[in-house]
């Protein structure tokens, strides 16, 4: 800058302003040159359009850089900038660095069901570089009201594969792999070790403990969520010095496994809600942006639209996982054996019933065809009974099968044989045991349960019986 012609000397403030003005002029000229260069080089046009301020250091914007091949090494490419621009503009520290962190991250998602559907879609859309999806199950038509990653034409396809296809359709610039089988004690550690973060979108306690223990053994953060009915929960375990799942629940709880979506129902969007929040937490874990839900647990009740955050206890010195008592996945498996309880996905076992109290669906079909007098006691919950039932059945849910009810059943048509039925033959076996234990004067030989329940009735006797 030449100041010799001036009548009065510039103040340092004026000098600074003048310098800024000159730099702005230079910047405009350089931009014009760069735009000119990109007009003759079509593949850079989107860069100019997507970026008012290209993230190149000004010093590299020389004449030569503008006309020759520009090296964008180390920063996002034009396609990425265009795709993630709204996220990149986010105030509060996400920016290019956050996007690069996502791009370089690998996330393992266990379960591509109700919760997994939204976690996977959002992580893919936001640009997590690699997603690995584990699920052993196939898409069922009853999944579609909430497992929105799958479509009608995916029914019958493995869920991990169906989800991978959806990921590809949504964002082909990231990579996605599948494990089309269960996560078990044999593969959990190996799989988890190679990822930066794990999302538990499964639905049963055994899997939750396996994932947790493998995360503790390999030092990986675990973003955990669950949903049922109108309610859901969310938290992050094993993040930095935060507690793990076993710190809160050292051993499987006897009643936890008895809750199942298939038995209790779930409103379509509720798992999706939890999944969306899990995606947010995963992004926070990966990028360091925001405050990770490590010391709190979110409890959400969609029926009230209520969200409550409760403080979690800190890492427990006596926690079997954190204290090192569980040293391998074999230890983990043994410590979780009692978690093999009922769940949405892991097949439940009927309690033992003596063979004399068991009736096959074929035998029961014959009883009906002959018109033999009997009581058909359907022990499913009222909601299931209302969906569909065999003609003539009376409904007393297993949970209310008290002595009083049994007396009633006995009084109505005296001394008739009782056939207990439920969906799969598990609750009906429990009902038989309960009736036999009550000792209220039933002829034990007249109490039966229908093996395989209404599922077996549908598959072996009448295919028109609804599936749910
Ligand atoms: N150990 C595991 N390995 C892999 N996937 C698992 C494991 N445990 C559970 N899952 C999967 O997690 C998902 C949980 O999702 P969700 O409960 O919404 O689905 P669902 O089992 O299809 O439900 P429904 O009870 O309606 O049949 C399921 O797809 C299930 O197959
Ligand atoms: Zn712990």
TrEMBL record:
Entry GO MF terms: adenylyltransferase activity; ATP binding; metal ion binding; thiosulfate-cyanide sulfurtransferase activity; URM1 activating enzyme activity
Protein residues bound to ATP: 114, 135, 142-146, 159, 203-204
Disordered: annotated segments: 336-360
Active site, renumbered: 261, 422
Record's cofactor remark: Binds 1 zinc ion per subunit.
Subcellular location: Cytoplasm, Cytosol
One Pfam family it belongs to: ThiF
Keywords: ATP-binding, Coiled coil, Cytoplasm, Metal-binding, Multifunctional enzyme, Nucleotide-binding, Transferase, tRNA processing, Zinc
Binding site for Zn(2+): 244, 247, 319, 322
Ranges in a coiled coil: 13-40
CDD domains: ThiF_MoeB_HesA_family (cd00757)
Polar residues bias spans: 336-348
Similarity remark: In the N-terminal section; belongs to the HesA/MoeB/ThiF family. UBA4 subfamily.
Biological function: Plays a central role in 2-thiolation of mcm(5)S(2)U at tRNA wobble positions of cytosolic tRNA(Lys), tRNA(Glu) and tRNA(Gln). Acts by mediating the C-terminal thiocarboxylation of the sulfur carrier URM1. Its N-terminus first activates URM1 as acyl-adenylate (-COAMP), then the persulfide sulfur on the catalytic cysteine is transferred to URM1 to form thiocarboxylation (-COSH) of its C-terminus. The reaction probably involves hydrogen sulfide that is generated from the persulfide intermediate and that acts as nucleophile towards URM1. Subsequently, a transient disulfide bond is formed.
Name of the molecule in the record: Adenylyltransferase and sulfurtransferase MOCS3 homolog
């Amino acid at each position: 800058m030449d100041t010799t012609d001036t009548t009065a000397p510039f103040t340092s403030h004026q000098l600074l302003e003048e310098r800024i003005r000159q730099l702005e002029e230079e910047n405009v000229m350089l931009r014009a040159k760069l735009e000119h260069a990109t007009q003759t080089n079509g593949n850079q046009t989107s860069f100019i359009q997507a970026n008012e301020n290209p993230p190149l250091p000004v010093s590299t914007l020389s004449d030569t850089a503008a006309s020759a091949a520009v090296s964008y090494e180390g920063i996002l490419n034009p396609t990425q900038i265009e795709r993630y621009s709204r996220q990149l503009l986010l105030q509060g520290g996400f920016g290019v660095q956050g996007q690069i962190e996502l791009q370089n991250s690998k996330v393992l998602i266990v379960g591509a069901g109700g919760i997994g559907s939204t976690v996977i879609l959002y992580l893919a859309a936001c640009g997590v570089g690699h997603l690995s999806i584990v699920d052993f199950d196939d898409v069922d038509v009853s999944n579609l009201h909430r497992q929105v990653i799958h479509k009608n034409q995916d029914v019958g396809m493995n869920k991990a594969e169906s989800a991978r296809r959806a990921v590809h359709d949504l964002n082909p610039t990231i990579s996605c792999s599948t494990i089309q089988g269960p996560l078990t004690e044999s593969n959990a550690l190996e799989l988890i070790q190679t990822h930066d973060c794990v999302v538990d979108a499964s639905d049963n306690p055994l899997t939750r403990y396996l994932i947790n223990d493998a995360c503790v053994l390999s030092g990986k953060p675990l973003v955990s969520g669950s949903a049922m009915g109108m309610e859901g929960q969310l938290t992050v375990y094993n993040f930095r010095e935060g507690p793990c799942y076993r710190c809160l629940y050292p051993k499987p709880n006897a009643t936890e496994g008895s809750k199942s979506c298939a038995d209790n129902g779930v409103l379509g969007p509720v798992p999706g809600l939890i999944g969306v929040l899990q995606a947010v937490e995963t992004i926070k874990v990966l990028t360091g942006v925001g405050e990770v839900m490590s010391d709190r647990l979110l409890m959400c009740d969609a029926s009230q639209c209520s969200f409550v955050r409760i403080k979690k206890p800190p890492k427990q010195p006596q926690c079997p996982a954190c204290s090192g008592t569980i040293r391998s996945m074999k230890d983990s498996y043994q410590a979780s054996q009692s978690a093999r309880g009922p769940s949405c996905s892991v097949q439940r076992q009927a309690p033992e019933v003596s063979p004399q109290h068991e009736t096959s669906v074929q035998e029961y079909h014959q009883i009906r065809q002959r018109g033999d007098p009997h009581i058909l006691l359907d022990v499913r919950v009222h909601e299931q009974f209302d969906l569909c039932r065999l003609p003539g059945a009376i409904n007393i849910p297993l949970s209310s099968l008290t002595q009083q009810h049994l007396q009633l059943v006995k009084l109505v048509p005296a001394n008739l044989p009782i056939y207990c039925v439920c969906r799969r033959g598990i609750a009906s076996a429990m009902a038989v045991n309960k009736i036999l234990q009550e000792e209220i004067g039933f002829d034990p030989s007249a109490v039966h349960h229908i093996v395989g329940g209404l599922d077996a009735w549908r598959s072996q006797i009448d295919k028109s019986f609804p599936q749910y």
